[in-house]
Every structure is written in C-alpha cells, then in structure tokens.
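User: Hi! Is it possible to get a structure for several chains at once, not just one? Here's what I have:
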Amino acid sequence: MTDALRRFKSEIFQGLAHPTRIAIVEALRDGELSAGSLIEKLDIEQANASQHLAVLRSKQIVVSRKAGNQVFYSIRDQALIEVLDILRRYFYSQLSTSVDMMKEMARQGPKPRIRMR
Amino acid sequence: MTDALRRFKSEIFQGLAHPTRIAIVEALRDGELSAGSLIEKLDIEQANASQHLAVLRSKQIVVSRKAGNQVFYSIRDQALIEVLDILRRYFYSQLSTSVDMMKEMARQGPKPRIRMR
DNA sequence: TCAGTATATTCGAATAATCGAGTATACGAA
DNA sequence: TTCGTATACTCGATTATTCGAATATACTGA
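Assistant: Yes, the chains can be modeled jointly so their relative placement is included. Here is the combined structure:
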C-alpha cells in the first residue's frame, strides 16, 4: 500500500513537473476556465495546451466539464493549491540565502531556450 | 519573476517525480541518513541510489554532509515534508471516491500498456 | 604506501516527454 | 446538411530520464 501511495505521489509530481502545467493550475486557482481562456491567458499554442491538459487530466489533477462546444477545467482538489503555496513560500525563503538559485536560472539562458521574464 | 517561480516549482516537482526519490525523502523525514543506510533501507542498487540522490541534490531537495568515509543526506526544508503529507491526505480522500485510482495502480502491474480514456 | 569500504560518475540502451504541424472530432447555428 | 468554432488527437523529430554495469574517486586504517 505504501508503494501505491508513493507511485500516486510521483504521478502527481510528474503531472506538475512542467512550467506550463503549473501555470495552468495556477490560472485555475480562482475557479474554472475554458480551454480557450487558458490558451489566451497563458499565450500558448492550442495543441500544446491540449496536450498539457491531457496530462493533467490523466493524473487526475484537473477535471473537465463540457458545456456546449467548450470544455471548462477546474482543479480537482484544493490540496494542490496548498502545495503550490507551500512551494512559493519555500522559494522565497530559499532566495534569501541561496545563490545557487542564480545558477539554476542562468542554466536556462545560454541555450536556445529563451524565456526568463 | 513569476516565470522563475514556476520553473522553480516545476524543478522541485520533477525532483520528486519518481517513486524511489519519494521513498528517499520519506526515509529522511526523521533526520539524516547515510547513503549506505538509504540503500539498505530501501533495498536499491548502489548506482541507482546515487543517481537519484544526485537528482535530489541538483534540485536542492536534499543537502549532503560528508563525515569521514560516508555522506549523510538530509532534507533541505521541512516544507517538502508538508507537501508529502498533504498528498497523503489527498490520496486517501481520493481513494474513497475514485475508482480510476484502481486503473492507475493496475497499470503499474503487468507490462502491456493499456490505453484508456 | 596499500587494501578495503563508501559513494559518485560515466556509458549505452531503452523508454518517456515535449513540441509544432497537421488532422480529427464535437457542437451550435443556419 | 454545411459552416465555423472549440477542443482533442496523431505523427515524427528531438531531447530527457532511467537503469544496470563498469569504472572512478575519496577516505580510513594498517
């Protein structure tokens, strides 16, 4: 049983292990949004959004509701928001002492990946 | 800054996105352990353990301390334990209502990948 | 120095994740 | 039915993760 629990947790973590998917979950924090609203709000490709939403669905992180020809997504459990909040605090507490963070962020720069706003 | 925060979170999640690494973090819950103790306790290959520990180190999830011949690992921040606890509660609350969980768990057993929607 | 123990790293193969482009499906309105 | 919109899925290429095996490094004690 413990093993199943660990697999379950790792699936949740895997589901959240991408910046875009975190952005999606955070965007849903205050309530459901249609896939289209998410795409617009996050400025991502439609196909990409759909793929990430499929991942979130498969890990049971979000649930979807169909209304007419749109699909509304919402977070399945508030616990996940709690988790993100804990990590936000963790991030800032680390920031004050950790210069390694700079390394981590710089690692993103040199390669063709451009981001970093 | 929001972007960096999301990348940070996703790195943490990625670091925890493997059952073995979750087992390691849980084993460290009550205090530091040497790499050897972890290997024995979790019954995993030495090289594999070392690789997973390297991941956890690179994501700043654990810190290591060298003492003579051995290396002791501990969790960098209690926040991560909190996160695991939240997910444990989440798991059990889902269990009572979610039959999909069984599918998820069954998927882990035999080799053939079933694709269900 | 050498031998033994503890841990880390490298290698190569297998698997999985990711992306954009293209295509398919579902729905509402005409 | 057909059209237009919203969303999902498939494909192929690229990159990342994972594993065990082998090797390397670091430390201790003789």
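DSSP finds six helices and three strands in chain A. The first strand of chain A starts at residue 33 and ends at 34.

User: Great, thank you!
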